[in-house]
User: Fold this.
Amino acid sequence: MPLIDSNASDAQPSITTLSSREVYRNRWMRVREDEILRDNGAKGIYSVVEKHDGAIILPIENDRIWLVEQFRYTIQQRALELPQGSWEMEIEDPEELARGEMREETGMDATEMTQLGTLWIAYGFLRQRQHVYLATGLKPAYSERDAEEHDLIARPVPIAEFERMMLDGAIRDNCTLAAWGLYSLWKARQG
Assistant:
């Protein structure tokens, strides 16, 4: 028996929005609070953070992958992760976003971008999709970092070391781990 009913996407939602109000907004995100009614009759509150689509990039060349390290304020630590981000506006072309983020964070461009899929980052509270791209044929490009990325360090590491860092907890970013899982599945099917 499947875990998810294949007809579940056609089913009526089990939660109805009764009202919605914006509680905060800045150029990167919007926070709203919804009064809801569950199909069991219970009322409640659901808070939702909305952000524009983002991209995460796996820049791979010669058995090396480019990672970025930067201070992440929310956890008060420096963190290693794949290049990723979003812009302060809706995007028409996710590949353009991926190319822009990679250029900005690594100073690299790619001759080929392969879209591997799209993920929801943390849909328990966040409405934001992340487009996953494999970047190959890397070459140096002009890079102008945002002020928020003043401490960002980009460097290539051997893939074997990257995998070890994920297993030993040196890399804990769920987006990086999910993107690597998607890439690994894609690569296994390439034959």
The mean pLDDT is 92.
